[in-house]
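Quick check before the chapter quiz. The format below is the same one you will see on the exam, so make sure you can read both the input and the output lines.
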Amino acid sequence: MMLKVMINNFYEKLAKVVVHHSLEIKEGHKVYIRGHSHARELIQAIYVETLKVGAHPYVYSKIEGVDELFFQNATEEQLRYVDDVEKLIFGTFDRFSFIRSDYNTQKFSTIDPTILTQTQTTPDRKKLMEEFYAKDARGEIKWNIVPFPCHAMAQEAKMDLFTYSEFVKKALHLDKENPIQEWRNVKEEQAKIIQKLEKFRDVHLIGEDTDLTLSIKDRPWRNCCGDKNLPDGEVYTAPIEDSVNGHIRFTFPGIYLGNEIENIYLEFKDGKVIRATAEKGQKLLDELLKIEGTRVIGEFAVGTNYGITTFTKNMLFDEKMGGTMHCALGFGFKETGSKNESAIHWDILKDMKIPGSKIIADGEVIYQEGKWKI
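Here is the expected output.
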């Protein structure tokens, strides 16, 4: 007699969205599922749903503490090492499900920022990720990041776990009868916005301590509707690399490996950061800007998910928040026409609901105080 593991309805529903909508897993696909051991309920749910469609799932799960121990004890050679197994996985699997959770969001707070950035700057790591994103741009693979509600994330969001779980459920449309159809509706609505955005050439961003210009001429926009990220809800493109000029202040903290960089102010000239300050985390900001390609904006985006109303210190949610925009320093996605290469892609968020905030395109106000005008 075959025994079946009982899967919680929340995770079963989420797994169906991941398998059938986000990753479109089919029979024969090789599927890589990665997450921390405390996220086992969601790992199990995605694993079972993957088996049901006749695919071949492989689970990689870390135990608590190994990340901190690595950065505390690894030599420079070990920090820069990329294992052959990891190269094989990223080179041969068809689908990738990355489960985002944490047991301690401050676990890297005592690690020297120069050590944290070394793992991303090695040539082998950079090559591995460039090849991965190139395959993604060619449509050869699909990947998705999905959240697991946990105490650490709830604490960062200043919620108890029960309240946070409800917040996650609504952000993912899991409170609806057919969440997959809800994400399809998002895709349809955002497609109408993108159709208008792709006609514009020059963008002027105005906001709190912000006056920034950039060009998006002939750069395609992308529709984020639950495929690569859950939750989702944004439209994004890549500015012409040398077109960004002016200054911008990001009103929300920048988060890098759990470390906060507060009140980030950047000045640009001909596409590159020429001045960068922060009230907190200046050393980490300086180290990040030393990484090749991070002085250039690789992404310009507007959040469209008005169901996310609270900043949670989790960019998987925060960058989708309706009424905000964000820029990513570093790597730009090839499908947006970006030519910028970097070992990292670091999103930083700005509140656009503040009075006077607006986006002007070719002289027309297209977005004002958190709402589209087109």
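If your answer matched, good. Residues 179-197 form the longest helix (19 residues).
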